[in-house]
Amino acid sequence: MADTKPEKEVEGNPERPVRVYADGIYDLFHFGHARSLEQAKKLFPNTYLLVGCCNDELTHKYKGKTVMTDVERYESLRHCKWVDEVIPDAPWVITKEFLEKHKIDFVAHDSLPYTDTSGAGTDVYEFVKAIGKFKETKRTDGISTSDIIMRIVKDYNEYVMRNLARGYTRKELGVSYIKEKRLIVNMGIKNLQDKVKQQQEKVGEKLNTVAKLQEEWVENADRWVAGFLEKFEEGCHSMGTAIKERIQESLRAQSRDFSLLQYEDE
C-alpha cells in the first residue's frame, strides 16, 4: 500500500500551493490533453501545476516521430489555462532528484503503465507510486494524438489534393511525379462531379419552384373562379329582379290602357 504521509504533510500546510507535476509528449495538443491537465490542476484547492514535456531527441528515440517539434509542443502547453509552468526537456523517467529539484509534491498521470528506457519493461511511474506521490487522472475516450493521425492517414489523398490546390509543391508534400499527376486528374474529376451535383441541385430547386408556383396558381385559380361565380350569381339575381319589375310595370301600364279603352266604348 502506498504511503499517505506526503498528502498529510500537504494538508498540514494549506497556505502553500500544492506542487503537482504532469508530464507527456503532448503532440497535436488536443482537448484530451487539456482535460487531463484540468484534472491535475483541480486535485487540490490550491494547486501549482508544473507540466513536463520531453524534447524531440528523447521522444523520437523512445516513442517515435512527432508531428510537432518540441518547441511547438512547449508553446502549445504555455497557452493552456490550467498550466502554471512548463518544464522543457523533461526526463523520460522521474527520479527522486528531479522531484527534489522542482519541489514536486505529487505526480499526476493516467494509470496505464509506461515502460522505462532500460528495456526491462518497468513502469516509469513505479517510483512515485511506491512513495505515495502518484495521483491518477482519467483519459478522455475518443480522442488521442494517434486517433488524429489515423484520420489524416485515412483521408491522405484528399488532404494532399487540397494542399496541391493551395499551391504546395509535390516535393513539399513528399509526393512522386506520377502520384502528383494522378491526384491532379482525380482532383479534376472530383471538381467536375461537384459541379454536376451543384447543377443537379439547382435544377431540382427550379423544378421545386415551378411545382410550387403551379400549385399556388391552381389554388388561386380555384379561389378566383369561386369569387367570379359568386359575383356572377349576385349580378344575375339583381338583373332578374330589375327585369321582373320592368315587366310588372309594363303589365300595369297595359292594364290601365285597356281600362281606358273600355270606358271610351261605353
Describe the structure in your own words.
There is one protein chain. With 266 residues, the protein is of the alpha/beta class. Helix content is 59%, strand content 9%. The protein contains ten helices and five strands; from the N terminus they run αβαβααβαβαβαααα. It has a five-stranded parallel β-sheet. The longest helix is centred in the C-terminal third of the chain and has 89 residues, at 177-265.
Give the overall shape, derived from the CA principal axes: elongated
Task: Let me know the largest β-sheet.
Answer: 5 strands, parallel
Give the class from helix and strand content and strand pairing.
Answer: alpha/beta
Alpha carbon gap, first and last residue: 149 Å
String of helices and strands: HEHEHHEHEHEHHHH
Question: Which helices and strands, and how do they pair?
Answer:
Elements: H1 5-11, E1 18-24, H2 31-41, E2 47-53, H3 56-62, H4 70-78, E3 85-87, H5 96-101, E4 106-109, H6 126-130, E5 134-136, H7 145-154, H8 156-165, H9 170-173, H10 177-265
Parallel strand pairs: 1-2, 1-4, 2-3, 4-5
What can be said about this structure in brief?
This protein is of the alpha/beta class and 266 residues long. The protein contains 10 helices and 5 strands; from the N terminus they run αβαβααβαβαβαααα.
Short key terms for the protein model shown above:
elongated; 266 residues; 59% helix; alpha/beta; disordered C terminus
